[in-house]
Amino acid sequence: MQVRANGTHGDDNEMRLIYVTSSFPFGQGEAFILPELESLLRLGHELLVVPLWPHGGVVHDDAARWLNRASSEPLISFEIGSSIVTEFSKGSRRIARLLGLFTDTNPLIALKNFAVLPKAAWLAEKALAWRAEHIHAFWASTVATLAMGASELSGIPWSFTAHRFDIVQDNLFKEKARHARFVRFISESGFRMAGLVGTDLEQKSEVLHLGVDLWDSVPEANHNQRPVALCAASFVPVKAHGVLIEAVDRLCRRGIPLELWLAGDGELSDDLRHEVERRGLANCVKFLGVLSHNTLMKLYASGAVDIAVLASTDLGHGLHEGIPASLMEAMSFGVPVIGTATGGVPELLAGGAGLLVPPQDPAVLANALQLLSQNIRVRESVGEAGRKRIKESFAAMKIASEMARLFSTVPDSALIKAS
Q1: Whose CB among 46, 138, 144, 149 lies 3.0–4.6 Å from 160's, allowing a Cys bridge?
Q2: DSSP labels for 106-144?
Q3: Which residue ranges of the chain lie beneath pLDDT 50?
């Protein structure tokens, strides 16, 4: 396994790359892909984005410009049906190998993989016609199934990025790793979770963080009389918004001036709103709804946000935080952050790059919020350390340059076969 969080700019030849996503540029859940894609373009590479399931509309303003670089064929269409019929008519061994591979898992996952197979045949044709040199899937789930199928049918090499839930799901994870040119993990905790240490697949594993844009300057602190703490996260159990709301309640009862902004939506939306009302926190907690990526960046750039916070917890069975893009983005602007010691968060906040608190502990979280809200020197010091951490290990251009190097590297095994 190689840790490559500090990749450097390279002079790689321009490549034609296909990025397979879940739904990006549609939907709201994959805005964190944007910095990597934009950086690859700036490095001179040509990109085509293929969402597995394009749905949800274009939520993020800065994702809209990717519509003309996306091939958004639905999961089922006449064109896709024609592709799989053509592939079966060839009677190729490749399709037989895929069918056998997809069967070698539990029935539910097998069914999901079979559902993706027709689009894999279509993507193989698309990739060849577009003259793609590499296919990369941004998840290890059925997104990677689509990329693997297209690679198997076209002969174009492929790879995939593994996050967290998609590792736990184990949709033929090790088989995919075996077929891929390399597996990119976004955190060391994810790599350890995958169980590849000491196996023949460890040498194919790369820990390469997600990257964020590093802005030329940071906003001047507003030194608000009532500091603003922002939590940008989906309203789902793993984000533990309830703990955060309780921490803010404690501060309000102490008479500590602080305003909490919650940006997002999700299954717990109604419950969280009711909790805020029950505690009488309507004057302290503000629900912003779903913000576009561009709008969120403008909030940071304007200096409107004094603190960024996530109260993430560990639900067991690998259901915990990865390395959260929301904290990384805040840190890139010099906004001090608070995170919990769960999942990959300690990797991000190492060396004092942010305040790290135990999960499910509203008392300690409240104390951390109070420290940053009342001590401007500490706030500025933590913010500077966070920005330095992003610059050194999470800058999008560095990450994209290293990804491009990995895409263009021909493994020794391939050289042996070619000789």
Answers
A1: 144
A2: -HHHHHHHHHHHHHHHHHHHHHHHHT-SEEEESSSSHHH
A3: 4-12, 413-419
